[in-house]
Amino acid sequence: MTDQTPNSTEGQGIAGHGSFFQQTDLSAEEAVRATDWVRKHVDRRTVDLGDRMDDVREHMYELEKEGEIIIHRITDDHEPISVKTMFGWDKKVPTKQLWHHKSCGQCGNIPGYPTSIIWFMNEFGFVPGKDYLDETDQTSCTAWNYHGSGIGNVEALAAVFLRNFHQAYVSGKQHGFELGHFFPLVHCGTSFGNYKEIRKYLVESAELREKVTKILGKLGRLVDGKLVIPEEIIHYSEWVHVMRNRIASDLQKIDVSNIRATSHVACHYYKMVHEDAVYDPTVLGGNRTAIITSVAQALGAQVIDYSTWYDCCGFGFRHIISEREFTRSFTMDRKIRVAREEANADVMLANDTGCVTTMDKNQWIGRAHDKNFSIPIMADVQFAALACGADPFKIVQLQWHASPCEDLVEKMGISWSEAKSTFQEYLKEVEAGNIEYLYNPELAYGGKA
Amino acid sequence: MQQIYDDIRGDFRYDHELNGCLNCGICTATCPSAQFYDYSPREIVQLLWTENVEQIYDAMQEKIWACAQCMTCAARCPFKNSPGGLVAIMREVAIKHEMQSAKDVLRPFGRVMLKLITTGNQLSPDMIQPDHFPDWGPNIQKVEGDLLTLRKAIPVKTLQTVETAWEVSLKTSVEMYTIWEMTGVLDSLELMDENLFDVIEDFIDEKREDYEDWLEEQEEEDDD
Ligand code: SF4
Ligand code: SF4
Asked: How far apart are CA A411 and CA A293, in angstroms?
């Protein structure tokens, strides 16, 4: 460092950086080159990462050959559609015979998102109990607790994962089908990330497999004394992604070309075990994961980008409960404000319970700080259901959302007030015990189709 | 202190999560928590990378609890480190060593933890009410009405519940308790909050009894 360097103080380096700090003195061209390097390696998905990373599925096939595990396979009966993941690997997404693995946040909080998924399956003529199953024999992945509190461990998460997915594997039997008939469809972003992480550990660690085999044995959840691991972990938004063109061509009833849609993809969808997230060169240049945006595009909405696309919503597991200032400040300043001011969005679409909750519920209090901006928040599948003519209350269940969905619904040409009064009439029917179901409720309890 | 460090380093995930560190700060630049707290994922990684045992201990007194576990850092790090993953290990170790920071930080989370451990579900419909979350505003539902009726209006039978997000069969819950016990999760809970642990134990015992009764009933029915 020389005396001419404007910010230097003799022997102390640049203020605040310590004496070891050296200015780079890059020329303008060099700075551009360096920045380009960072862009290539950080902004864009990088190919070289793929070279250094093993495909976990290869190891699963080896373990299966050695007789260590059973792979719950996706077969032709599941009518899979192949997509590419971040590293260009193929991923099979089953479209049928799905076991709904519910999300503990979403079902309690945003029930319109599981109902919209099931509604779509019915609209496609899927037969409940054959083409899909929704049953009570499942726990949540319990990763919220682990990420929130640190109370828990990999062994417990692995046992929960294997228990739930064993149930998915054997569930078809009750309905007169083969083992493996139903393939798990994971509704929650965190479950999806957590399960993939745990699957990796299980495949890598013989010690972990040995420990959990004891637990699963005690629960009676081994098949031929072996652990059952699914061939792919599938997130519901991947199902929506592969079905998007059929949704648009077969079911869409409402023109949404006047709707400005922004998306927020769950961190645990594409940042955890990121090599497995779905990318498509026709969606945002293949630089960002395709899901959510792809369905908005297929429906013909105007997809608007914004500068904080990559940012987390601020959910934070424990933070949304006990450090609420962080959660709401982050969501208001980094997501809602930006989507409002930069993109003038009519709606923000997401694919996880935590994100929808965080961004939906924290808008009201913003006004206390003169943050008077708001945007309706919902899951991609709820928006798609609206576009396909689903009832905003009975099916899409927008009554549970705190964000202002009314204007969006009206802009789509659906009368909010009419739908609301019809629903209020329906509530009287519900009180009288006349309840409408999307499928035979006995199936929920493992009954026959 | 050394033991704490050894426990962190001894976790089998450690080598996955830490491969080296350029000190580039990309993780911190993208970290939501770094914008709101005196917290930096780069610092956490550097402390572990340079084996700065004393400061690792200090960071565990508070800082590690700032991490939101979003894993943005992991997706961005050119070295494929996962600062968020390292924090997860450090939190587990903080609990194992009964650190006060863990107890303090987790206390306000107790009500949710009770729900989580006993039902496997978290924010249930009966919790998402204005008295629990006044800052979510007066109208967190757009339709007036009794909560149970509103839940019954959801056209999916498994979701017509109020105390849990969906109906979970008794057998399933009992299996989950076995997992908690066999993997030491309940022991960790006892270290952190003995009162909460007692409440949870009572709850679990009750559920197990219910399950035994149910099994007996089934047998009697079969005998008939
Ligand atoms: S996981 Fe933690 S350290 Fe990493 S970016 Fe998110 S909040 Fe920051
Ligand atoms: S991004 Fe990775 S290499 Fe850079 S400071 Fe963070 S942990 Fe270190």
From this structure: 20
pTM, entire model: 0.91
* Cα B142–Cα B143–Cα B147 angle in degrees, nearest 5: 115
Contact between A329 and B91 under an 8 Å Cβ cutoff? The reply is: no
Which residue is it, tokens 């049953």? A135
Exposure string of A337-350, with b = 16+ CB inside 10 Å and e = fewer, is: bbbbeebebbbbbb
Structure tokens at A397: 């269940």
Residue A127 has pLDDT above 90, yes or no: yes
Angle at A195 between CA A191 and CA A197, to 5 degrees: 120
To the nearest 10°, report the CA torsion of A230, A233, A235, A238.
-100
If you write DSSP's letter for every residue of A216-246 in order, what string do you get? HHHTT--BTTBEEEES---BHHHHHHHHHHH
Average pLDDT over all residues of chain A? 89
CA separation (Å) from A19 to A15, A121, B25, B52?
9, 64, 19, 21
> For residue A52, what pLDDT band results from cuts at 50, 70 and 90?
low
Give contacts of B 36-75 with A, CB under 8 A.
Answer: 36-37, 65, 68-72, 74-75
Residue that is written with structure tokens 């999916």 in the block: B156
Contacts of B185 (CB under 8 A, 6+ apart): A151, A152, A153, A156, B117, B179
Mean pLDDT confidence for B132-155: 87
**Atom of ligand 2 minimally distant from the CA of B76:** 1
Q: Tell me if A189 sits within 8 A of A268, measured CB to CB.
A: yes
CA distance B160 to A236: 21
As given in the structure block, the two tokens for residue B208 are 């197990």
End-to-end CA distance of chain B: 64
The minimum CA-CA distance between B143 and chain A, rounded to whole Å, is 6
Tell me, yes or no, if B14 comes closer than 8 A to chain A by beta carbon.
Answer: no
Q: Determine the 3-state secondary structure of B86 from DSSP.
A: helix
Q: Residue A151: which of B206, B197, B174 has the closest Cα?
A: B197
Structure tokens, B118: 């006993």
A226-244 mean pLDDT = 98
CA distance A214 to chain B (A): 9
pLDDT at A13 over 50: no
Q: Which residues of A148-179 are buried (b: 16+ CB within 10 A; e: fewer)?
A: bbbbbbbbbbbbbbbbbbbbbbbbbebbebee
Mutate to test the interface with A, among B37, B73, B122, B160 (most CBs of A within 10 A): B122
Quote the pLDDT of residue A5: 43
CA A446 to CA A441: how far, in whole Å? 10
B33 lines ligand 1 (CB under 6 A): yes
Within 8 A by CB and 6+ apart from A191, the residues are A101, A103, A140, A141, A143
Helix boundaries (H) for chain B: 2-10, 14-17, 26-30, 41-49, 53-61, 72-76, 83-96, 100-106, 110-119, 147-152, 170-182, 185-192, 194-223
CA-to-CA distance for A417 and A421, rounded, in angstroms? Answer: 6
A312 closest CA partner among A356, A379, A267, A349: A267
pLDDT at A3: 42
Q: Cβ of B174 under 8 Å from any chain A Cβ?
A: no
